[in-house]
Amino acid sequence: MQYLDLSDRADRLFFCGDIHGEYSSLVYNLTKQQIRDAIVVVVGDCGLGFDEWKAYDLKFNILHDELEQLNTLILLVRGNHDAPRWFREKLIDYTYVRALPDYTVIGTNGHQVLCVGGAVSLDRQFRISSMKYYEDLGKNVSKIYWEDEQMYFDEETLKMLDVQGIKIDTIVTHAAPSFYPLPFDKDYEHYCANDNSLDDEVRSERDRISRLYDYLISHHHPVRNWFFGHYHKSGHIYIMKQSFVCLISKRSYP
Length: 254
Fold this sequence. Notes:
Elements: E1 2-5, E2 13-16, H1 23-32, E3 39-42, H2 53-70, E4 73-76, H3 84-88, E5 97-99, E6 104-107, E7 112-116, H4 124-136, H5 155-163, E8 170-173, H6 186-193, H7 198-218, E9 225-228, E10 235-239, E11 242-246, E12 251-252
Parallel strand pairs: 1-6, 2-3, 3-4, 4-5, 7-8, 8-9, 9-11
Antiparallel strand pairs: 2-12, 6-7, 10-11
Helix pairs in contact: 1-2
């Protein structure tokens, strides 16, 4: 478990939905809305791993001055459309942009935020077949699907929270727990029709995410807020006085 101590920064948290590599647009909107002295958490599908590292290095160096002027830090949580090793190995680790390994805790003056990435890609069969098609043609194609994309429940790491006396009040995942109303539509039925095990795996994953919640509640963590993306829809509901927010664009801390 990584603990990211940001207690020296202003306790001004924002959460942002899937950006799919649109970092320039994100920074543009931060500038336009004068979001300064902030911590912005992107809740997955950051678009890391589709290009070579040097392309991201160039991009983040170009954005450095704007983020420095805003004094705003962008933290990236792993989605299903991200290369897991980029987060596991912290390949993006700049002054104002950082990729967080799963089970990172962000500590601010007022909050302890647990970030656990990953999800099952609904369009994985299309991505797998596309990669195979171009590989069969002998073309060197970018990776667009990662077999280890799913969310992993790690109870041993969660136990470290209690050992270190960390109490989580906010959870960030890419997908939603099983008790959040499933925000899928007819597209989901289409994906399932072309992927026999997809529905079972999605439901299993949502159950694992719920186990994360159950563990924290049973160990007396004061969970009050949960942010996730993945579904490209916005939603906000309360369950037992706890806030659950599905993000399609940025939302400030309630």
